[in-house]
Protein 1
Amino acid sequence: MAGNSFGQLFKLTTFGESHGKALGGVIDGCPAGIVLDLDKIQEELNRRKPGQSAIVTQRKEPDTVEIYSGIFEGKTTGTPIGFAIHNTNQKSKDYSHIKDSYRPSHADYVYDIKYGFRDYRGGGRSSARETASRVVAGAIAKQFLSDIKINAFVSQVGAMKLDKPYQDLDFSKIESNAVRCPDTEMAQKMEDYIKSIKKEGDTIGGVITCVIQNVPIGLGEPVFDKLHARLGEAMLSINAVKGFEYGSGFAGVAMKGSEHNDAFNTDGTTKTNRSGGIQGGISNGMDIYFSVAFKPVATVLQSYETINKEGEKVTTQGKGRHDPCVVPRAVPIVEAMAALVLADYSLLARTNKI
Amino acid sequence: MAGNSFGQLFKLTTFGESHGKALGGVIDGCPAGIVLDLDKIQEELNRRKPGQSAIVTQRKEPDTVEIYSGIFEGKTTGTPIGFAIHNTNQKSKDYSHIKDSYRPSHADYVYDIKYGFRDYRGGGRSSARETASRVVAGAIAKQFLSDIKINAFVSQVGAMKLDKPYQDLDFSKIESNAVRCPDTEMAQKMEDYIKSIKKEGDTIGGVITCVIQNVPIGLGEPVFDKLHARLGEAMLSINAVKGFEYGSGFAGVAMKGSEHNDAFNTDGTTKTNRSGGIQGGISNGMDIYFSVAFKPVATVLQSYETINKEGEKVTTQGKGRHDPCVVPRAVPIVEAMAALVLADYSLLARTNKI
Amino acid sequence: MAGNSFGQLFKLTTFGESHGKALGGVIDGCPAGIVLDLDKIQEELNRRKPGQSAIVTQRKEPDTVEIYSGIFEGKTTGTPIGFAIHNTNQKSKDYSHIKDSYRPSHADYVYDIKYGFRDYRGGGRSSARETASRVVAGAIAKQFLSDIKINAFVSQVGAMKLDKPYQDLDFSKIESNAVRCPDTEMAQKMEDYIKSIKKEGDTIGGVITCVIQNVPIGLGEPVFDKLHARLGEAMLSINAVKGFEYGSGFAGVAMKGSEHNDAFNTDGTTKTNRSGGIQGGISNGMDIYFSVAFKPVATVLQSYETINKEGEKVTTQGKGRHDPCVVPRAVPIVEAMAALVLADYSLLARTNKI
Amino acid sequence: MAGNSFGQLFKLTTFGESHGKALGGVIDGCPAGIVLDLDKIQEELNRRKPGQSAIVTQRKEPDTVEIYSGIFEGKTTGTPIGFAIHNTNQKSKDYSHIKDSYRPSHADYVYDIKYGFRDYRGGGRSSARETASRVVAGAIAKQFLSDIKINAFVSQVGAMKLDKPYQDLDFSKIESNAVRCPDTEMAQKMEDYIKSIKKEGDTIGGVITCVIQNVPIGLGEPVFDKLHARLGEAMLSINAVKGFEYGSGFAGVAMKGSEHNDAFNTDGTTKTNRSGGIQGGISNGMDIYFSVAFKPVATVLQSYETINKEGEKVTTQGKGRHDPCVVPRAVPIVEAMAALVLADYSLLARTNKI
């Protein structure tokens, strides 16, 4: 209710602040009998962790997950899976210079008004560090989904846009570069660009595209809980996200119905897929694909003017360890959230018919 | 759970099919003591109802709402508000030609797989007719919110885009034309265009922009239930929606952090508003604005090829009473959903602090 | 959230006041494909309706249910089932004498404090008339459950207690008398007693026992949502209920573990059933049985002293049409709530394992 | 959903098995600004912990709680409070003798059917060890409630019943004896009796009574979420509970309405309190009191016959470290659950009126 849970039947609740003792969560509703590969969970965390390349934040965190419950003799038991990731490299002192001022386009100010206090240590709960817990849960959801394949990748950095249909991309290349763009040539350009932005002490936005394959027909609930509505909510809940579109998206607006409609093949598949794998909020068995827009990170390592708690102007020098561009590390987060949505709706779909 | 409820504290549950006896819903959690103007509820319904102009569907429905409970001596009582809108102009026969075939880019096929049956009468529950119930609830939510002003309008039809900042628009003009575009010149062009599309028996997409003003600071829950995540879910749950963006949206991706950040004024307001009135998922008191992309309506009044239940190819002639462009009638729906989100989060915000 | 919904997957939301236009509700999550016998729904309502015998309230209500949605060609569609029961025999004037005073042991006073107003017309939402909607939903749940048999009956009126194990009772006799006690001899005594109480203008309490047979093993969720915890909540939510016990109940307290334990047969059934068909919150396949205590109705047709809104003493004469003993009409309500719990947990149980 | 969460606005989710690495939970929705006394949390845990006296289980667990998040500079922050209690004294070998057999009146058998596996180590998730997490959360809820006083105590052990009205008891004596009965004479008898039962290798049931004072008027939601319905659910969710009654309870059944009604004083209080502080599901400002029946613990240290997984008869000797009577250690659990309910409804009550 207070916003720290996601999902209804496969449900994740997370806790933890950027500079607290530990982050973690509880997965409730994970079915019994899944043979869990714990290494795969850690691998997903490693894809998200800081310090993995030159174009991400240099905070050094091993991000090792400890699982406390819900697994017995290698399998899930159907009971809640509690887990924690202990913080080890908090440098709260890095934040003492902003203790009394509000950083622009951060949540500092609204937290103070809403809660009557502010955890100035790296943004506290508003930090994207929280998403580590989502990646753990998503890695478990992926193992539950097994047949469903979820691939996210960076399709845009700043104005640099990968203008190829996803069908022409080789997803096995996603992890071959620091940007996580499957087109290695474009990846190199993006990486160079991010490095130049970083040198300026500045940041830049980006887009992640996600493709979900082998989805059974029938996932999603009509009306308010349409599959894409939940996917959209999931993506928009990730830090720095400003937009979501699926299938033909915003570009589809300019099309006529006669052009936009996906004609059926006799087996129920469609010749085109402008629908993005979802009709009326329910998966139709075609690939689901969507894009997620991330704004540039608000923390710039430059001097800027802002206000303090007393409403006085102050000039501050941005410092600390930050991502110049959030999308490379956000790829596993997008996948994790997609996996959580699909796991939840997979369970829900079991209840549709007598 | 099965997707027919929206909201947590101010909660709407809807029921009803396009050609059933009645549509309606229950609002649970509406606080006691609101002096309700019932005429305003009907006015909102009238904005959505079919047959209101030459560019919308010609189905003739009075869409008169009956309120069964929850109001006593002119005020809300805090008990659930049950209501119904009786269908009077169902022409289910209009649909007999598609009884055995699946319309492309409609929910026919996935309903049949998911539920083992299909209500061919106008799409049954998957019809946008369901949104009438949302408009009723939204009209009540608006009266609860009172000070908060919600204005949605059509900002794009096909490729025709209103390229002015919303601050330069006169919202009082929105209702002055059939398209619901506040720029009357552009509105005329859009209307002409929709008429020409209609003449072709075709349909076209569009974009609705929504601006919410006078929002108190502090609405929205961190992490999963960010204010914009819920707004996005709300909008994506409206029929035919393919995308959502708020603040700088997809365009913000190409900006640098130093350009994108909204510098503070000493009173806590910001000089720019690329954030779209929301920081870290929490309203910051600036205007909230977002855009919603609608695909072209799938029902075209042309001949098309599709498949039947046996998986055989069939040729069908589209007929019935349909909207050539959904956005004019979707304006009050967007407002209604925004109002429901804000009402819900307004109540939730009462619980943040001791 | 505001307390007008019950269930998670098979979910009922109700609306309506004692003297409003209509009562009703929405069932969300009822699976598609149930062949619904609408007459059976009305029959259950008839078991609850006023005026059915000399020992219940003489308000004359046909309690005819109208179903608005969710059923197509005789079967449930998986979409929400909306329904209403129009009030026809409101005599709000009967209540004008208590408009300004608070009836003892009624909800008048707390409603006024909580909501800042009071619907004096028959208790408004706090009236047990709301339970008519539960009976409709329960009747649908029963048809979904099909194999599971739910039988409730009156086991105590005042101090008169039916002291036979339920196995010795003939459930087919429950409907043979106005009290709904399967022991016809005891039923006659109870009926005579209720009549004598009525003559005094007084009321009396009672106990309903419910037996659920043919329950599959595995319904119920461990920890907070134990099957008996939800059953208890369901029963305690019925007007006038003061207590709930299942299996050995309060009497089991005085037993030793060695006496109380239910030894297994080799087929997994147990030789005794002090557990009441539930182990660790999960059904074990044995009969579930529980008892529900109802207090005497608070409205007595006698003169009594109370206070008015100004906190002044006033003397009032009880009048109106009231039940001298609530248990005969509460039997179908207990069954309905049990059916709703079981339907909900039946769906939930589909999600336990991969 | 899967039953490991409790509450709606002040919400606890727990995880952990009897012999796993750690137990713990997340409290979501705790308001910001509560000055938390961490010692008080540990004190409540100490009241529940094993090994505290001769009449409870001799498992040696320090039950030290680690809080991971949600507290900053001594106050709650409004963000989720994650916590863990590491298990240190698991003796899973104690259970190897029952690895392949089902203990009577335990959850072993139903878990195996429901989940397709069984955690034989001390009952796994079905163990009452889970309630340690509830006590942590309850201790925090108590500090939020501050003015509301919750006192639970043992009122019956076996057939030995404390037959005094709670008004005549001195709650400050509850912690003065191992049984937690405020009547020290009766406490001694109960203690002696439990010791004799223990010597037999047997167990015995008991009753806990709980009194809640200084409750504001207006807590509780009408209809399904009545305050006593939620309290009942909360209590019935505690391991070994078989019954719940509040106010006049089962005994009130035999009273006439004219005797049972609580007449008002002019200040809105009532002369008697058979209602148990709740009218129509809403607190009326009088003391709330209720009783909870606990069955005898199923594990007896005697030889017994049961079945194994193959459905064969086996004879087993009960062993391990177990409570001969569960009620002394359950007192803080009852209080904790009551505190959680009241905290939840206190927040909800903020949303009733405009």
Protein 2
Amino acid sequence: MKAVGVVVEYNPFHNGHLYHIQKAKELTQAEIVIAVMSGPFLQRGEPALISKWSRAEMALENGIDLIVELPYPFATQHAAVFASGAVEILHSLGCDYLCFGSESGNINEFDSIFNLLAEKKDEEDRLVKEYMKQGMSYPKAKSCAIQELTSVNKTQGLNLHMPNNILGYEYYKSVRSNAYPMQVCTVARIKADYHDKKFTSDTIASATSIREELLQTAGSLTTIEPFLPSSSYQALQQYKETYLTYHTWENYWSYLKFRLLQTTAEELSTIYEIEEGIEYRFLKYVKEASSFQDFIRLLKTKRYTWTRLQRICVHILTNTKKEEMQTYSKPAYIRLLGTTANGRLYLKEKKKQFLLPIISKLSSFEKEKIVLDVRASQIYALGVPVAAQQKLLEMDYSKPPIMK
Amino acid sequence: MKAVGVVVEYNPFHNGHLYHIQKAKELTQAEIVIAVMSGPFLQRGEPALISKWSRAEMALENGIDLIVELPYPFATQHAAVFASGAVEILHSLGCDYLCFGSESGNINEFDSIFNLLAEKKDEEDRLVKEYMKQGMSYPKAKSCAIQELTSVNKTQGLNLHMPNNILGYEYYKSVRSNAYPMQVCTVARIKADYHDKKFTSDTIASATSIREELLQTAGSLTTIEPFLPSSSYQALQQYKETYLTYHTWENYWSYLKFRLLQTTAEELSTIYEIEEGIEYRFLKYVKEASSFQDFIRLLKTKRYTWTRLQRICVHILTNTKKEEMQTYSKPAYIRLLGTTANGRLYLKEKKKQFLLPIISKLSSFEKEKIVLDVRASQIYALGVPVAAQQKLLEMDYSKPPIMK
């Protein structure tokens, strides 16, 4: 059985994701689709709207055959680390293809840039440092450096200021630089930009615009219905009924505030990604901020992007230390979230060739290896009202993989 | 001007406290009464129902002339440390007398036991250790040891199983063993026992029974009105109107739970009073407990008293480390909460003789010395609904001492 892998967040699963899965199958003629998905906290440093289990359900209803969790130490990172963790897992699961969505839609453009930059690594590093000295953030400096190097050599074409092109390039680079035997292809995003906050088509909308709408309509989902498969729509409705809320940063603001008010600069500086004295800004502005949004607005500088600050807040919330993260240079396990019958066939056929152990139940695995994922799930559960917390809190210990 | 000192919590201030102040004046003929009062967290390991500022107002309206805060490292401790901090402060403020309430009401009984135990220190220590080996808690072992030593020598009389006798004995011991030039006297508690949960008189009730009633009547204070001076009654009403709630442990339960869920046993073991592997019980039961009461009930053992467990929870909430507490063997400052005109006269007359610096405004004092008190106030402020938090949060930075 040939498998194509995709890297996803499904926050929430919408028609654009469905299109991506269909195209991935069409392009590769693969028989099964494997997704590696972020858990409770996402690459943008935000809690997922609904739990990983509900998002996995959505995926399995709509064309994904096997879905696993991207561990916390990779899911909550900038593009390069996020991509390397995801690619490693897809490779370990024996994927023959990797297919990602991009603004470009042309894999040759990724190939050209990769070949060019492979020769110019030192120059790239030098330019990144130079731009950062001028006060740019790392992602901004990186895309400017690449843009400068490539435009000089007339291989324009791939716009590396576009968010999905950036991530896509990192996937491509991970596969190629590790020389993994995986073919990489890309599907052009259609009808919606990543950053769109308003709807621009009748059936396809960005996850960003769907979230905006969802959080504003206080319970009524009718305006987002056209953009989601019906099973996704129902899962969203059901989640709200069961847990009384979607998860947004504001649900965690009082916890973050509490943690910052009870701690010292010295203690805070042990948290992952707290660097360069930024801890003092955190301790100063927490006393003034009236909400999470307000807090990030106060913290924001030219050098620290909104998403980087949000990711730091996630690490404070989950109490993730620098020394803990050091031990996770590569994924050490694969947490299985769910399978279809087709996915189970694949598992049966390929399991022995997998390069990492598969965790189906927490009890069957050394817990210290998965401690960061478990902690993130526990903290995530506190984002719903007390009455609904226990159910969510226990899920990570008792829930077996979903079988469709 | 002669001054009598009292050690108080006023949670809340009631007619029994008024009686104590009047008797203290009568017995000593002192011209002013000085109170040293716990701040946001109390000796029993509970948040105070209302803020220290509102409790200081109550005190100044009802006979106290000068009120200062017992710093956190003494206020949240077992009887001996609580008493030694409070006595030290009253001595530093030049009090000529110390007057405490007790079940006994006879200072000679305290004197006899002190003299007897001074000779039998080693035997007392040995007995305490022995009883603890049998599984008793420290306070229980201590009162049993003393009871055994004193009954053998026919100086019964002082029942050291009674909570106010225990505290009183510690005050008495602090004054005598430091040879402070302070006369000590005691007033018998009337008409209500410390542990009473029901009302047993028409005008005097224990703070415990008043709190029980207050928290059950959801807003209506009429049933407790007979037991409070009218100014106290009004202050309680006003507090609820301004901050929407009284402070109870349940208001902090979600923060405590969050902190425990995000931490490791190793990190938890750095918290003050976490000893003997009790951290593992905390981490285990937090996942099962449905409320703070339920949590303590699950944690409870023969050796760990309810109040000791609550005090540990306070230290977790305020993130107070063992190494921080080590630096506070004696009070280093006196935080002034309020004065009457009479109190200000006393300050003017005696200020130069005080043995510790007086802090009237936070900005005028080295902040690192008062960091634990400030942190405790900040965390305490999170116990009210978000809408009312900011006002309470800023109070510790901006509020000057109360002038009556």
